[in-house]
Specification:
The protein is α+β, with helices and mostly antiparallel strands. It has two helices and two strands. Strands 1-2 form a two-stranded antiparallel sheet. The longest helix is centred in the middle third of the chain and has 13 residues, at 46-58.
């Protein structure tokens, strides 16, 4: 990339190797007006959470919500300090 400082394009982590990057270049450089959002899903919505859950499942992982995470971590946390302990 140092050899092409004026290059315009996109870079994202490769899903195939997990350690490489994928590039797409375009010329001439474009403004955001040249791009169109074809589909948008908020990750916090039910549909977005479903996509996250499916992606995690492919990796053998499971998403847990904040309350479940807090309950899971509680035994590892130090006790709360009272005002007298500060």
């Amino acid at each position: 990339m140092a050899a092409l400082p004026q290059a315009s394009g996109f870079l994202w982590p490769s899903k195939q190797t997990g350690r490489d990057a994928a590039y797409v270049f375009y010329e001439p450089p474009l403004t955001s007006d040249a791009f169109e959002t074809l589909h948008f899903i908020q990750l916090e919505s039910a549909g977005g959470l479903n996509l996250i859950d499916r992606a995690l499942a492919r990796a053998g992982m499971l998403r847990i919500d904040s309350d479940a995470l807090a309950a899971d971590l509680e035994p590892e946390l130090p006790p709360d300090l009272g005002d007298d302990d500060l």
